[in-house]
Design a protein that fits this description.
The structure holds 7 protein chains of 7 kinds. Chain B is an all-alpha fold. Chain B is built from 3 helices and no strands. The longest helix of chain B has 27 residues. The termini of chain B are far apart. Chain C is elongated, with a radius of gyration of 24 Å. Chain C starts with a helix and ends with a helix. Helix content of chain D is about 70%, strand content about 0%. Chain D folds into 3 domains: about 375 residues, no CATH class; about 160 residues, Four Helix Bundle (Hemerythrin (Met), subunit A) (Up-down Bundle); about 50 residues. Classes of the chains: A mainly alpha (about 120), B mainly alpha (about 90), C mainly alpha (about 140), D mainly alpha (about 775), E mainly alpha (about 160), F mainly alpha (about 500), G mainly alpha (about 140). At the F-G interface, helix 1 of F face helix 4 of G. The structure holds sodium ion (2 copies). One sodium ion (NA) sits at the interface of chains D and G. Chain F: It is a multi-pass membrane protein.
């Protein structure tokens, strides 16, 4: 299964980059989100995955009695997801505001700054 | 056949197939409403899958995820309807 | 023994879900799709969750699961209602073999108000009323 | 000596803050400084001529080996006296020349800063501190040339001068550092004994070339000479002080100073002779075609500098003696000529040699000074110029097997320079006084006295060469590492070939002066050759370079975000790809992976399809919904692989993001088809390449052994020490709580940002 | 006052059940917590008589479950058989239910039973528009709703 | 008292941010709090620096978990120096902001976010944990996003879209690199990583990870060919923001490069060569860009890029002398670039434009301020003995010793271009006659500001100019610091032992 | 949205969801959940309310601007982290634990206050963002 996940992550990265390379601002943001998902899954997979054993110590004991999933990548991803959320929501609003001010979703049109070199 | 095998070989595959069927509807559309229905349903199936998976792995803590899914999926649908209503307001 | 209950409940839950999914594919218009999926899925999920409570037989888990079921019962129809309504707003057509449509012309396009009577009829009636009022002082 | 240098700097800073209070009286104060310094340095003459070398050492930045080490020997004494002596006269002259000028205080500020820098330069024993002062002279020169800062030409000339001398300065820096690196010291005194080692070092040529770069640019040698005529845009006191008497000689000074360290090597000598020769002849010819007095003087200055380089290149005792004398000669007469040019300009309002005539009638003392300076410049006895010229001919005539050729060149140069000297010093004063100049008034004595003093110097030192022989020339030659015992300066050497050459020079020069009159036509004629001149070549290459810069900058910085991303991706893919394919061992162990179950496959398929749909759909809303499915699939994966906390968070955030999108989207137009087929292919290839690299990288990493030390520690202590059973949560609020603290800060900042982005509207006047 | 107290107790119960810890402290905490929650959200006023209607509620639940399963099977049949047997349409149902809670509950129950879907309530709350899969005649359909769900709901709520 | 000293700058900034958030609309309070807080911060940072100088590297274990298990904060000489410089620049910009940032922006959280940015910078310098570094980076990024968009003008938005995207891209690559590193070693503590990475047998993987870090930090540091976001965005926000960006933001990328490539990924010849090539092209590209631009702030933006090249070159040469040069340059550049962007802000307030073509006459109108402006300008050029000069000695020596002539050539080229560019700027902005521009209605010209605001603008420039003069004339002290830092960096065992004991 | 059904339901969903959110917050140390998800659920409750009954109603209900929750939450989390520094001379973020067990919550310690801070910040952030967007939509 790890191979499939690896391919899936590769696809997420590729899709993210491809969308960032488009001219639409909305696609750009979607691309960033997809790329972020890819990065999160990457951390997850490289921390090695385990099925059906969440890192929660059983109610009746003080330590794990059996195998458990690595909690560190999970904590890292949690942090990363939340941070991405902050950035994404900001980005989405940026799209809105940019559209209102610059009147376009086309990134190629957002070059006025270069005219006054 | 043990319960584990039963869930693994019968219940979860049925759910997985359902998931793929819904995905088909999502892709086909044709209208945005159909996609929203599909999205709503696929999440609902997720709740079912998690219930099945928690039986499969004997880990009740997954049920908490199901709870969150139930709570939040609803909001998504509300938002989409809100959007469609606003969009069609002239 | 419990395993058998679990199996039955989970299997029937899964099957209801499958029905819903097939319904989603097969039904010819959006309203029918909503109609079919809401219930089948709700029932299916309910059964699967019940299977879990039977399996774990733990009070706190049971209450939690019942809370989920309750919540789904509460929200699923509202979702359906919202999507159905939204479909109508976005102009999704009824299946061609539908036999009646009482909703036709009841939504005000501008205010999105929903009248209990036909908007056109209402206008006509109001016109009539106005005419009546106009006529009154003459008498 | 440190104090002497600091005095100048202190005064210039002092002027910045208090200049306003002094107004007119500032000149007296300002001129007092060089005078005091002149007296201070003059008192060392006795000790230096006794062969003493006075050193001073102040630690500055030992970490770099940079110290303020000062050496006062023959060479630096001569330069110090020139700097302070001529400085004094220029300061005095300025007080009248720029009387009442709005920015007189600043002018004095720059001037004294320059003087201090120049003193530091000639006194420094440490190469780096020498460089420091060297750059300060360039910078103060920049400020002085651009003093008339509202004139476009002035600004341009200042920039060109700075650019050229800046190149030289950096060249000096690198040369010094290299020299320091191979000798282990920056002290010139310590390097004196290392000449053979340096000469045999593989980097010798490089170092010498770098030092030459510095000297040639500063001393306006061909082909870097052209900044100097341009620098004549500066007020005349500046031209006098910087561009004839002192700063341009810094390059000469450097060459003289380093002669014992780097000299006596074929490369050194040949290069200097060739460059000096070309410079002196080339610019001497140019003097013929100038009608602006300052232009004539500028080119003759370059020519004189060429002569000096030429002499240093010869490197013999005779040649260096000649150089030493010629420095004095040139300083005296050239300063005089510049100052009188300034007077003429100041009083008549023109410097055009074609109209200036008969001014002796109105500016008699000036005419005397001009006449004496012209004689000295022409090398006519009994001025010191004659001694200088004789020595020059003497050394050149006896220099090796190329002597005849070189002598020919120097004679031609001297003939032309005679012409130049006459044009500048005699022509304006002879003949009938045109009507327009009849009302010309004598300037204040503060203005005419300085050139007269200098001109008298030309005469006095010529008649009594003994005055400078023992006190200045001999110590100077010995400080260049040669034995100066046999030097005897005198006017008459007896009848010999050298005297014959002198006679020829004077005769031909005089003939030239009387036959060739400077005209605009001639000036226009030489201008035709401008397009082959170094200046034009440099200007054109600069234009080309500028165009190239523009192209290069716009090539990368083209304003298109997607091109930026593409460039970054290409870079990343190239490097990682190269590394991956050259070093990876492709040891993927498929047996260690878990088998694929039905639900994993289904979830993966859902995700894959959703990704594809998100990428390719034309509907915005569908793309957002489809992204929701990707998030959902990830959530299910998190459940499958034992991460309930993650699944919860992923799903709730995913939903929230979708909601935000939905709220924002309904105001946006539909997607347009924006990129063409080719672009899509390019981007597709790029992204697939990157995706492939990531996949391969993952497989490589998964084949490596696992280390779970950290997570095992967390697992073991989560409940016992941190009182929690959900290890992920314990990590979040305890083991790695600092991360979480920051994570919520990120959220808060983002929220403020969103709030401001949507609510803040600037007034028109607050915008850029 | 009474209503609030009741809601409070109910919420407390839910809390204790949720946490699964039947300790005194947990009851106190649950009470206190729901007290604050209620205080926070109380803007309008509800009107419910909880204890009288309990038996009716239970009966209603069983009725509902019966309807749910019956109709689900009907839909399943519809979905799984190759031909469509339906005659769908949107029907306007005049409402006897007056309050928001009544209308909402009714609408939701209608939606939850297979084959029917409450689309919307008119702004004057006089009619409910329902989409149904199997309509034979308008009157019959309206009747089935009014005598089925609406009647029972109103019995409970009034 | 000193046990937690390492954290004090962080706690103080966090505290300030929170307090400032509480004073949401009270902008005069915010001004006072920010300035006073920044002064205290300078004090604390000096305390920290002198403590580290006396006692060597200090660590604090957040949560009291022994390394490598918890997050650790490490203050070695480099970190302490950078924290001090951040405090100095921060104080200057805080004062400058109070005067120059319009009230509308201040009412929408300018100051809290400004202090969050400083917090992020300090955190990035002090953390000893690679993932924590990522989080600090995110604090920096999001704060800078908000600051760069605050006001939401057209140019600002266009610039910020690019700034945003490329910085996010960098973060993603950074995260990817961390993932790989964690997958390989199971650790996040940088000292521990140094040990574990050294023990990895598959060097190819290590090399790829290093490249990912290089790209991620390279984007942040604005190195060729990864710098594109910078010239398109730095000229758009208020000058005070540009000042802190110009002074510190790219430097944090440089810091990260230095840290990672002296501690974790050491001795990879391939990477060192890549870094050198990038440095050279950065020097050239930045210089060429500065040469052709006509907007003052764009010129400065390109000069930022250009001068990053010096620091990266030092890192690529990777000798003690070279690293000392890098550190010295870093110290100089932070102060001078901050000052320069404040200068551009001052000029904007004087004339209402930053276009070089339209500027002029400063010399006539503001003779003394012109001289003040001259200090950062010519320090930047490195006219000796001003601050920019000294580090070049180390870099050139290092280049000579390594016989990398092209690196020396690029360093010289960049110096020359800087000289020409600054002289050009001087000639056209300060010298050239004033051009009559249409008067901007309601624009708060410098002359019209009340005295206290004028003072708040000028005082930080004087302050930073004095600091940069000190760096130049007191180069001995700075070089001592730089050499010590270089010594510490070249021997990563020191760091590892300070963190992990042994 | 003008729908009686949603509006009515939201009245009941709000307290229910709020309770859920607290539940999830408090048990985070032992089961999946915690301040972050808890905060999200709480904000979803209010967002839902806002969708159903209009933003003004929800704002009235909240009484303070949701943005104000951010500094409060940050301050709480910061205090939880800084208390050991100020009062115990222990490093930042060191867990301070009340000896013994409490009902529902389990062990009471600074981590809980920290999580509560997270909760408040998340509520503040989410609501600020969504409310602002809705207002300017
Ligand atoms: Na139904
Ligand atoms: Na949690």
């Amino acid at each position: 299964m790890e191979v499939i996940l690896a391919i899936l992550i590769g696809v997420l990265y590729a899709a993210g980059i491809y969308m960032i390379l488009r001219r639409s601002l909305v696609k750009l943001i979607l691309g960033i989100i997809i790329l972020g998902n890819g990065a999160n899954l990457l951390i997850f997979l490289l921390g090695r995955v385990v099925k059906g054993s969440p890192p929660i110590i059983p109610a009746d004991s003080d330590v794990f009695q059996s195998v458990y999933a690595d909690p560190v990548p999970q904590a890292l991803i949690l942090t990363a997801i939340v941070i991405s959320f902050g950035l994404q929501s900001f980005a989405i609003i940026l799209v809105k505001r940019a559209y209102k001010v610059v009147k376009t979703d086309d990134l190629d049109e957002m070059n006025a700054i270069d005219k006054d070199s | 056949m043990t319960l584990h095998e039963f869930i693994f070989y019968i219940v979860i595959p049925i759910l997985s197939i359902s998931m793929l069927l819904i995905l088909w509807r999502f892709l086909k559309g044709p209208s945005i409403v159909d996609r929203i229905i599909a999205l709503d349903l696929i999440i609902t199936i997720g709740i079912g899958f998690i219930a099945g998976y928690s039986i499969l792995t004997n880990r009740p803590s997954f049920l908490d995820v199901a709870m969150i899914l139930a709570l939040i999926a609803f909001l998504g649908t509300v938002a989409f309807s809100y959007y469609i209503q606003k969009r069609n307001k002239k | 023994m419990t395993d058998i209950f679990v199996a039955i409940f989970s299997l029937s839950g899964a099957i209801f879900i499958l029905f819903a999914s097939i319904g989603l594919i097969r039904m010819p218009d959006a309203y029918l799709r909503i109609s079919v999926t809401t219930k089948a899925a709700t029932l299916g999920i309910g059964l699967l969750l019940l299977a879990a409570t039977i399996h774990f037989q733990d009070f706190s888990i049971t209450t939690r699961v019942f809370a989920i079921i309750l919540f789904i019962l509460l929200t699923a129809p509202i979702s359906a209602h919202l999507i159905g309504r939204a479909s109508y707003f976005s102009g999704v057509k009824l299946w061609k073999h539908s036999i009646m449509n009482d909703l036709e012309g009841k939504y005000d396009k501008v205010t999105q108000e929903l009248k209990s009577e036909d908007v056109e009829e209402l206008k006509k009636r109001k016109k009539k009323e106005k005419e009546l009022i106009k006529k009154k002082p003459l008498k | 000596m440190l104090l002497a240098i600091l005095l100048g700097f202190a005064f210039s800073i002092f002027l910045v803050f208090t200049g306003k209070f002094f107004k007119g009286r500032i000149s007296i104060l300002a001129a007092g400084i060089p005078l005091a310094l002149f007296v201070y340095f003059a008192q060392f003459i006795g000790r230096i001529s006794d062969g003493e070398v006075i050193t001073q050492f102040h630690s500055w930045i030992p970490a770099f080996g940079v110290n303020l080490g000062f050496t006062l020997d023959g060479l630096s004494l001569l330069f110090s006296l020139m700097i302070t002596g001529i400085g004094f006269l220029v300061f005095v002259y300025t007080s009248a020349y720029l009387k009442g000028h709005k920015y007189l205080d600043r002018f004095y500020g720059y001037l004294s800063m320059f003087m201090a820098a120049m003193l530091g330069l000639v006194l420094s024993d440490n190469l780096i501190s020498l460089f420091v002062f060297w750059e300060l002279t360039s910078i103060s020169s920049f400020f002085l040339i651009g003093f008339n800062n509202t004139s476009r030409e002035s600004r341009k000339s200042a920039l060109i001068a700075l650019a050229i001398t800046g190149i030289g300065g950096l060249s000096l820096l690198v040369g010094s550092i290299f020299l320091g690196s191979i000798t282990g010291t920056y002290s010139i005194a310590e390097m004196l004994t290392m000449n053979p080692e340096i000469a045999s070092n593989p980097y010798y040529i490089l170092i010498v070339a770098l030092i030459f770069g510095a000297a040639f640019t500063k001393s306006a040698q061909f082909p870097f000479h052209f900044w100097l005529p341009g620098a004549m845009k500066a007020p005349t006191p500046v031209s006098t002080y910087l561009h004839s008497a002192t700063m341009v000689k810094a390059g000469i000074y450097l060459l003289m100073r380093l002669t014992p360290v780097l000299g006596d090597h074929e490369f050194w000598n040949t290069t200097l002779i060739i460059v000096g020769a070309i410079t002196m002849v080339y610019s001497a010819i140019h003097t013929l075609f100038r009608t602006d007095l300052k232009g004539v003087l500028a080119y003759s200055t370059i020519s004189a500098l060429g002569i000096l380089v030429f002499l240093i290149g010869q490197g013999t005792v005779d040649a260096l003696t000649a150089a030493a004398v010629f420095i004095i000669v040139h300083a005296l007469y050239k300063a005089t000529l510049f100052l009188i040019t300034g007077i003429i300009d100041h009083q008549t309002g023109t410097r055009d040699t074609t109209v200036l005539r008969g001014l002796r009638k109105v500016l008699f003392p000036v005419a005397i000074a001009g006449f004496l300076a012209a004689l000295s410049s022409a090398g006519i006895p009994p001025t010191i110029g004659f001694i200088g010229k004789e020595l020059t001919y003497e050394s050149t005539f006896h220099f090796g097997n190329m002597a005849i050729l070189l002598t020919g060149l120097i004679v031609i140069t001297k003939i032309l320079l005679l012409y130049a000297g006459f044009v500048a010093g005699i022509k304006p004063f002879t003949g009938a006084l045109p009507e327009r100049f009849e009302n010309t008034k004598m300037p204040s004595f503060l203005m005419w006295l300085p050139p007269v003093i200098l001109a008298v110097g030309c005469l006095v030192f010529g008649i009594f060469p003994g005055l400078i022989e023992g006190s200045l020339v001999k110590p100077m030659v010995s400080s260049m590492g040669l034995d100066g015992k046999d030097i005897h300066l005198k006017l008459f050497h007896g009848f010999n070939v050298i005297l014959l050459l002198s006679v020829i020079t004077i005769a031909l020069g005089t003939v030239l002066y009387f036959t060739l009159k400077p005209t605009k036509k001639l000036e226009a004629w030489i201008a035709k050759f401008e397009k082959f001149s170094p200046q034009t070549i440099v200007t054109n290459s600069w234009a080309f370079f500028f165009k190239f810069s523009n192209g290069w900058t716009n090539l990368f910085q083209n304003g298109y975000l997607r091109n930026y991303v593409a460039t970054i991706m290409v870079f990343t893919i190239a490097l990682t790809g190269y590394s991956l394919f050259t070093t990876a061992n492709y040891a993927v162990d498929f047996n260690s992976f878990s088998p694929i179950t039905f639900y994993e496959a289904a979830t993966s398929l859902v995700m894959l399809v959703a990704i594809g749909y998100t990428v390719f759909t034309r509907s915005r809303l569908a793309a957002v919904a489809s992204m929701g499915i990707i998030g959902y699939a990830i959530c299910i994966l998190f459940v499958i692989y034992s991460a309930p906390d993650l699944a919860m968070t992923q799903f709730s955030i995913d939903t929230l993001t979708v909601i935000l999108f939905v709220l924002v989207l309904y105001k946006l137009p539909k997607y347009l088809k924006l990129s063409d087929y080719k672009m899509r292919i390019r981007d597709g290839v790029l992204s697939l390449a990157f995706g492939t690299i990531i996949t391969l990288l993952i497989l490589e990493v998964l084949a490596e052994p696992v280390n779970k030390e950290v997570s095992d520690y967390y697992a073991a202590n989560a409940y016992i020490l941190a009182h929690g059973k959900n290890v992920v949560n314990v990590i979040l609020v305890d083991f790695r709580g600092a991360d979480t603290m920051l994570e919520i800060s990120v959220l808060a900042i983002a929220a403020i940002g969103v709030f401001a982005l949507l609510k803040l509207r600037l007034k028109k006047s607050d915008q850029r | 006052m009474k209503n609030r107290f009741l809601s409070n107790i109910i919420l407390m119960g839910i809390w204790v059940a949720l946490t699964g810890e039947f300790t005194f402290a947990n009851y106190i905490f649950g009470f206190a917590f729901s007290f604050f929650t209620l205080r926070m959200i109380t803007t309008g006023s509800g009107n419910a008589k909880y204890f009288k209607i309990l038996p009716k509620v239970i009966a209603f639940i069983f009725f509902f479950l019966y309807e749910l399963i019956k109709a689900n099977l009907q839909v399943a049949y519809e979905v799984m058989t190759p031909h469509y047997n339906m005659s769908p349409g949107i029907v306007k149902i005049p409402l006897s239910a007056k309050t928001n809670v009544e209308i909402t509950l009714l609408a939701n129950m209608i939606t939850l039973t297979p084959g029917t879907l409450s689309l919307d309530v008119s702004d004057d709350r006089k009619v409910l528009y329902v989409h149904s899969m199997y309509i034979t005649s308008r009157e019959e359909f309206i009747d089935s709703i009014k005598n089925g769900f609406e009647k029972r709901i109103l019995e409970i709520l009034r | 008292m000193t046990q937690q000293l390492v954290l004090y700058p962080l706690l103080l900034q966090m505290f300030l941010s929170i307090v400032l958030m509480f004073c949401w609309r009270k902008i005069s309070w915010q001004r006072v709090i920010s300035i006073v807080g920044s002064i205290i911060n300078v004090g604390v940072s000096i305390w920290l620096f002198s403590y580290i100088w006396e006692n060597g590297t200090q660590i604090v274990l957040a949560g009291n978990w022994k390394p490598p298990f918890g997050i650790i904060f490490v203050a070695d000489t480099l970190s302490a120096t950078l924290v001090l410089l951040t405090a100095i620049s921060g104080l200057a910009v805080s004062s400058f902001s109070s005067a120059s940032v319009v009230a509308a922006r201040l009412k929408f959280g300018y100051f809290p976010i400004f202090h969050f940015l400083l917090l992020g910078l300090n955190g990035a310098f002090l953390t000893g944990d690679i993932f924590n570094l990522y989080v600090w980076f995110e604090i920096i990024i999001i704060s800078s996003f908000v600051l760069i968009t605050l006001g939401g003008e057209k140019a600002q938005l266009e610039g910020s879209v690019k700034y945003f995207t490329l910085n996010i891209l960098a973060s993603m690559i950074f995260l990817t690199a961390i993932a790989v590193l964690y997958g390989l070693t199971g650790s996040l503590n940088m000292a521990d990583l140094a040990l574990k990475v050294a023990a990895i047998e598959n060097r190819g993987l290590v090399s790829i990870t290093a490249i990912l870090f290089l790209v991620a930090f390279g984007i942040k540091a604005a190195v060729f060919p990864l710098y594109f976001w910078l010239p398109d965005s730095y000229h758009t926000p208020p000058s005070a923001v540009a000042a802190i960006f110009g002074g510190l933001l790219t430097k944090v990328g440089v810091y990260a490069l230095i840290r990672v490539f002296t501690l974790i990924f050491v001795g990879d010849q391939f990477i060192e060569n890549i870094i050198l090539i990038m440095a050279v092209l950065t020097l050239i590209s930045g210089g060429l860009g500065a040469l052709v631009k006509n907007n003052l702030r764009k010129v400065f933006s390109y000069l930022i890029i250009c001068h990053i090249g010096y620091m990266i070159a030092g890192l690529g040469l990777f000798t003690e002398v070279a690293i000392a040069g890098t550190i010295f340059y870093l110290i100089h550049d932070i102060i001078v670039k901050t000052n320069l962007f404040m200068v551009s802000g001052l000029i904007f307030r004087m004339r209402g434009t930053n276009s070089i073509r339209n500027l002029g006459g400063l010399y006539a109108d503001y003779p003394k301020l012109s001289l003040l402006i001259a200090i950062p300008l010519f320090s930047l050029v490195g006219i000796p003995p001003l601050s920019g000069f000294w580090p070049k000695i180390s870099l050139i020596i290092a280049g000579f010793q390594a016989e990398r002539w092209w690196v020396v050539g690029a360093i010289i080229f960049a110096s020359l271009i800087t000289l020409i560019v600054i002289a050009k700027v001087w000639a056209s902005v300060v010298w050239k006659e004033k051009k009559e521009l249409p008067v901007r209605l309601n624009f708060r010209y410098f002359d019209k500001l009340i005295t206290i605001r004028k003072a708040q603008m000028i005082a930080p420039m004087i302050f930073l100019s004095l600091v940069s003069l000190y760096i130049g004339f007191g180069a001995e002290h700075i070089q001592q610091v730089s050499s010590r830092v270089a010594g510490e960096l070249m021997d990563n065992q020191q760091y590892i032992e300070a963190v992990l004991g042994k | 949205m003008k729908t009686i059904i949603l509006r009515t339901a939201s009245t009941y969903l709000l307290p229910l969801l709020l309770m859920f959110s607290i539940f999830i917050l408090l048990r985070g140390h032992y089961s999946p959940g915690g301040g972050f998800v808890g905060g999200l659920i709480a904000s979803i409750a209010f967002v839902l309310h806002a969708f159903a009954r209009g933003l003004d109603n929800t704002k009235e209900l909240l009484k303070i601007h949701p943005g104000f929750l951010m500094p409060i939450g940050l301050a709480l989390a910061f205090l939880a982290g800084v208390t050991p520094v100020l009062f115990f001379d222990l490093p930042f973020m060191t867990g301070i634990w009340y000896p013994g067990q409490l009902p529902v919550i389990g062990s009471l310690g600074s981590a809980l206050f920290f999580d509560l801070g997270v909760y408040l910040v998340v509520v503040g952030v989410t609501l600020t963002i969504i409310f602002t967007i809705t207002e300017s939509a």
